[in-house]
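Open question from group meeting: does this chain pack into something compact, or does most of it stay loose? Before anyone orders reagents, we agreed to write out a predicted structure and look at it together. Recording both the input and the output here so the notebook holds the full record.
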Amino acid sequence: MKKMKRILIVKNRALGDSIIGLSTIQYIKALLPHAHITYALPNWIMPLYFNLDTSADKYFSLKFNNIIDWVKLFFTLFFSGDKFDLIYELHCSGSSYKFFKLYSFFTRTNYHFNNHHITKNSNPRPSIERDLEGVWRFLNENIYKGNLKYPNYLEYEPRILLKSKTKQNKKVKEKEEKIIVLGIVASRLSKVWPLEYFKKLINLITDNDANIRFIIPISPTYPIDIEVEKLFNQENNYKIKKSQNIQFIKKELDELPLYLEKAYLYIGNDTGLKHLSVAMGLKTFTFFGPDEPGEWHPYNVEIHHCFFIENKKLPCRTKNGHFCGISECVSCNCLRLISVELVFDVVKKYL
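Structure tokens returned:
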């Protein structure tokens, strides 16, 4: 096979998945430093990367809502001037798989993919490892002829930096004060640690150090975020002693990294915000409820702590599969059993 000069990596998934995918790009860059890598992502995620430096050389926007999108995407990609030696899709989805199979047929471009399909009897593996394995398998068979060492996923934690120009234009300050990012929202309510627990934890942290500030990033338009903010601000569940130390950040994706750059800890639910915090160098503490951390917390747990109640104590989690996929839960014991006192006892060492 000819040398890989231009590679298109595709990940048509959620925000957190796009950050996890950076690990594979870092791996490819380490092996093929002269390869030009384009990273194809859903169009709504693209603004996140406007102000960021990653291992990707270029980005490409994906949109598959209708046939018009497909046609536009085909011709935009075809006339982009990029003649790819390889198109590789990570954790492939149905729409992007069909599109790139079609595109590769007409353009004679090598298209390969991996998926994360898990059977009821198989054990989920770290998401970064599964991405890496697919690319490793392809490179090992086609370029390295069986001599490529299997990668350790913990060595490829995603890395993101603010562009130096952005720092100058936005006058981003160094970490002059202690700022903690709180991730109180999630993609579904069943993944949200109880809001009164967050409030109690804020009070405990503030009692320990009154100078600590908290920022709570939420989407200005996402319905769940709006609902969670409303519930959080209600006084009837639990009152915060020093509310002036808390700031809700309602910004679009392109501005979000500017606020994380100033922080040093993330405490919250398992969301894209957690993965972004990891990639930007924050120490993280994550609450896992319906999902297991083995799959979606592919990081060194000594640096990125996770709180999780084992399956044997919660048979409901794996009743219909390897995780619980319900949107809302009346009891939410998988998260309620993670006590505030337990969390504070771990977090206080780093305040």
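Observations to bring back to the group:
DSSP finds twelve helices and 13 strands in the chain.
Residues 15-31 form the longest helix (17 residues).
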